[in-house]
Amino acid sequence: MKRREAVDKIKLAIIGYGGMGHWHRVRMALSGYIDVVGAYDIDPEARKRATLWRLKAYESAGELMADKEVEAVLIATPNDSHEYYTLMAAAAKKHIICEKPVTLGSESLQRMIDAANQNGVIFTVHQNRRWDGDYLKAKYIMNCPEMGKVYRIISDVSSSHGLPGAWRKDKSKGGGMLWDWGVHLIDQLINAIDSPVVAVSCRADFVYGFDVDDGIDMFLDFADGTEGHIVINTNDFKPYPRWKIFGTNGTGIVKSWNSRGKMVIVRERFDRKNKGIDAGNGFTKTMADRSKSTIRTVRLKKKDAPPRKPAFYEGFYNTVRKGEPLLVSHESVMRCMKIMEAGFKSIAEKNVIKTEI
Q: Which domains does the chain have, with CATH numbers?
């Protein structure tokens, strides 16, 4: 058995010890690459909770930054404060992991990148859904030769639970579904499709009456002709499949987060047995179901898109300790940010935004 090399764990403190801060603490410990030593939160109760896990609770962000034991920080505060803490951490020579969305605009993001570069520290963003099982299956289908040319991809995340609580309903803090979930689904598509985005169209829902969107429909047109359709809905009582992928020779479906996925591939383009159907008050051959003999269903096997252990923390460790490239690069984060900005512009102007992103 190959022995695992000795790990010089990165000593890290968490800024913002709420739900996501605690989530990171647990998973960082399990990763074996990061030693969480402390936490800071503006809420005294959150600091108290941190001590229950034997973390040092800092009374201020300044106290945390002054702690020489701390090599890195994880920022899990409301979105509007990410830049503030990033600039503070960079000045204190701490490496930085920032929760998504990284900030609320591309100019702010550039300041964060510049601060990290000028101070010689690593700065990256927790785009964790690049390792989601449903996404890996969708990518497998997109790249399967049997599908022919893939020309449309629908990525749908829907539920009926409404907007999350607390600051996620607050526009000034970066609330709303385009910021919260759009950042994930855009990131997934632009990492799966090797082509620039040339047009963005987006509309938003405000079903619950807040000043932030509770759902979006976004269309991304890629230069290679592929269309990405992102659907986010928090008032959907019967959600669509998580992924639906259209190719010239077949259709791929990944039904949910944990389903295996399948492709329906054409055997015979012309269906000789199609006699047509009565449809409502009319007759159609075009919209009739296909004869089963003209198609075949290919169910994905586990080996086709095997589940992968999330590599984010290991990747951060390898960048800090070994100088390897970031798994979530500054360029990919900036690209995603500019597409989100185009989405907000499209919502405001009710128009298609031409881009080259």
A: 10-126 (3.40.50.720), 130-261+300-308+339-354 (3.30.360.10)
